[in-house]
Amino acid sequence: MKKSILNTIFSVCLVMILSSCYSLTYKVGQGAQAGVSESAKNHYLIFGLIDIGTSDPAKMAGGAKDYTVNTQHSFIDGLIASLTSGLYTPTSTTVTK
């Protein structure tokens, strides 16, 4: 029984350590042309189920027709999420014009 519990704890810890940061990138129009970027945070609660504040990539682009959007869950975002046990889960959005 004790060995089974230890194996389960080890497996859960291993999965958490080996999970990677995710990233989603998409282009609008021809994609980034000038290389000027702007970043903002997105705020979620309870493992991302409740949205309490997200950035608007179109506003961040400032009317540009061609830009690239990258939304990612960075290491720091993951660290914050793990310290709060998933109650607060931030992500980062970067718009490159």
Explain briefly what this protein structure is.
The protein is of the alpha+beta class and 97 residues long. It contains three helices and five strands, in the order H-E-E-E-H-E-H-E.
Strand order of the biggest β-sheet: 1-4-5-2-3
Beta percentage is 35-45%
- How many structural domains are formed by the residues? 1
| Radius of gyration over all CA atoms, rounded | 18 Å
State the helix count: 3
**Overall residue-averaged pLDDT value:** 85
Choose one word for the global shape: elongated
What is the number of E strands? Answer: 5
- CA distance, first residue to last residue: 57 Å
Largest sheet, in brief, is: 5 strands, antiparallel
Work out the helicity level. Answer: 25-40%
* Category from helices, strands and their pairing: alpha+beta
Poorly predicted ranges: none
Order of helices and strands: HEEEHEHE
